[in-house]
Amino acid sequence: MPQAGLHGLVGMATQKMTGKRDWFLLGILLGSFVPDMDNIAVAAATLMKTSTAGIHRTMTHSVFFIAAVVVLFFLAGQWKKDTRWANLGLGLGLGMLLHSLLDLLLWFNGVALFWPLPIWVNLWTNFTAPSWFMKFMDPAEFLFFALYLFTLRAWSRKASTDGEFMKTHRAWMILEIALFAIFTPLAYTMTKGFLTIFGAFYLFSIFMVFFVTIRMRKTIEAAAG
User: Fold this and answer.
1) How far apart are CA 74 and CA 70, in angstroms?
2) Tens-place pLDDT, residues 134-188
3) How far apart are CA 108 and CA 98, in angstroms?
4) Are 7 and 74 a contacting pair, CB within 8 Å?
5) pTM score of the predicted model
6) In sequence order, what are the residues at sequence separation of 6 or more whose Cβ sits closer than 8 angstroms to the Cβ of residue 82?
């Protein structure tokens, strides 16, 4: 999969196309991260020493699941008589769809785009990536989380929003840079247990970035305007 932070940056690139629709851009950014949260199930299966096959890039990457999320939030908006919930759902759907499409373009094992139908779409069937590149893909997660946070920080400065959160935000950003620096050499030298340790910090990071995005919704709303 492309790095989760890269998905977030692609979501950010829609900034000028979303228009002034409350919670829409927020939904796109959150939706950019949601599909890869299926790694929680992968981690649970790993800890229980059961098969992880058919977990990642399946349900949460499916167009049917994405459609269900959009419909659910639309109904919530109707029930609460608040169009922001429908906007959020539409944004989540768009962010998740962009995520799945980017996985198709930049990942090499395919995506179960039509789960639960047993159909994997793989544009790279006859391609094998170099070993050194595949190893680098893991620590690069932290680099792209840092770049995503850096861009949020730039948005905050431009809009003069969430200033009281910037000290904490800076600490998270520095942490991601440090994790990138630590895990890059480990990816090439650690022969046993790397994925377990990496996975723990990865899951922590993706949830941290997810909640930082929610915390900085004022900044995101200003960027959308």
Assistant:
1) 6
2) 999 999 999 999 999 999 999 999 999 999 999 999 999 999 999 999 999 999 9
3) 17
4) no
5) 0.95
6) none
Q: Which two tokens stand for residue 200?
A: 């723990």
* H or E element that contains 120: none
**Token reading at 178:** 């440090």
Peptide bond before residue 116 is cis, with ω within 30 degrees of 0 = yes
- H or E element in which residue 23 lies: none
Rg (CA), the chain: 18
**Token output for 8:** 């977030």
Q: How many CA atoms lie within 13 A of 123 on its CB side?
A: 9
According to DSSP, the residues that pair with 111 across neighbouring strands are 121
Helical segments of the chain, H only: 4-12, 24-33, 39-47, 63-80, 83-106, 131-137, 140-159, 166-189, 194-215, 217-224
| Long-range residue pairs from 192-195, CB within 8 A, at least 24 positions apart, any chain | 194/138, 195/138
What residues have CB less than 8 Å from 110, skipping those under 6 apart? 57, 104, 120, 121, 122, 123, 124, 125
pLDDT above 80: residue 73: yes
Between residues 193 and 67, which one has the greater pLDDT? 67
The DSSP call for residue 111 is B
What is the predicted pLDDT for the residue at 129? 85
At residue 1 the predicted structure's pLDDT band, cuts being 50, 70 and 90, is: low
